[in-house]
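Need the bound structure for nicotinamide-adenine-dinucleotide, inputs here:
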Amino acid sequence: MSTIITGRNLIAGLWLESDALFDSRSPSRPDEVIGTFPASSLEEADAAVAAARRAYPAWRRTSRVLRAELFDRLAQLVKRHTDDLACLMARECGKVLAECRAEVIEGLHMIQYVFGTGRHPSGEVLASEIAEKDAFVRRKPWGVAAVITPWNFPFAVPLWMLGPSLVEGNTVVFKPSEETPAVGQRIVELMVEAGFPVGVVNLVHGDGNIGERLVRNSDVNVILFTGSWDVGSHIQQVSATMVDRIVAAEMGSKSAVIVCKDARLDLAVNAAVISAFKTSGQRCVSAGRVLVHESLLDTFCEKLIAVTKRLVIGEPLDPASFTGPVINQHAVDKVLSYNALARQEGATVLLDGGRREGHYLTPFVYRIEAKSGIRCAREEVFGPHLAVIPFRTNEEAAAIYNDTPYGLSLGVITEDYRAMRFFREECEFGMGYVNLPCIGAEVHLPFGGVKRSGNGHPSAAGLVEAVTHKVSWTINHGEDIRMAQGLTTGIEP
Ligand code: NAD
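Answer from helper R.:
Posting the output first, comments after.
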């Protein structure tokens, strides 16, 4: 039995307890308490923002190279703690150990990437109309960033956002998901150990009310949010009325794998199974749909069900498990309600494994014709729920793919380079995969989507745009004033 973790907020360098507490529980054994964490008050959220604001001037003035060096120290610590971080994550969010390990490594890659950017250019030199003028573009930090994150990638996603914000000179208030506060707190503990100065990183635990308080605080310049469309769009609306407020929001999806008529069938089946059921369908990029050319439909479905039935759905810490439970009772209820909705909307159910105690759900697979207005094949379910949808032409497949409010990830299974290009050009997505599952990320590649999936500030490289603003800086080396567009000074000599 592991010790129960005592959670604390980190505000202005002090680890503080709170009057009210909440439990973090294991999704596979809901009776197991991982730790108790501050159900922070609104005043504590405000205090964290004030601490970040106080720390900002000194941090902004610290050399970018030295800010980045702290990430090198953090990388060493993460390497040392990879196994215990993965284990804690598996217990707290229910993902299987191998995936948790991979996530820690993804977080490590982001830390290493950010360390590298410390010595990259932080601006450009441009030409001017006037030969004697030097024109520079310089990126500057915005100030205080609030990092608000989901439970399903509790290590890598916070680091995607903390890394670029901090290296560019912003200070941060981090609010991890209330479902995974222990992993969130561990990140901050390691950052303190790595030497991030007092107030530069602050941690405040709590639910959506605390997130909302950070969003409504006009002293927060940047909101870096990853989570659902409902919350993200609300944050965007609140922020739209605020001065000097930038929002980068990465949100949900209804991703799909398209299986073309020339697809290698076994590869297509494996790609669909991995896309739909890894992490129990709880990745932002998880495929809720597989679009299959009608000529392959029967054989594809037969093989898909055979492979799916063999998946081991079990304890996150058991190396034999392919996937674990869903996160909580609310997730169980949501998936079951979408399973029922699919039946009402005319689905032919191919597999319904049901549920087991401890938030375990087995895959629900059904065939359904694409028709306008059906919700089960258009809305994000975020669980092991897969629609198989037949198509006749590539044009029809692209139209079905695009018929959701989301646009995050696309897998195409084909040997035909023309078909590949057609889908790349015609489908709305942020990440495309050919002859691969539609899940998986590497930190130096764009990660994000269009429509309700995000507003386009993905990955470390992309986030630099959100966490900084550009200023121009023009220097005249001539002995008198010459202006652009042929404008004269209008002052007689
Ligand atoms: P969620 O939207 O319920 O919560 C995300 C975070 O927002 C949590 O920390 C929560 O406390 C906070 N929050 C809730 N209400 C708030 C409010 N009013 N103001 C400010 N903050 C508030 O999402 P979740 O259930 O934790 O995660 C699952 C969702 O995240 C899915 O939709 C998934 O697709 C998405 N996701 C997207 C990406 C991506 O990169 N596009 C990555 C991972 C997860």
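Comments: Residues 148-153, 157, 175, 177-178, 207-208, 211-212, 215, 226-228, 231, 234-235, 250-253, 284, 380, 382, 453-454 surround nicotinamide-adenine-dinucleotide (CB under 6 Å). Residues 255-434 form a domain with the Aldehyde Dehydrogenase; Chain A, domain 2 fold (CATH 3.40.309.10).
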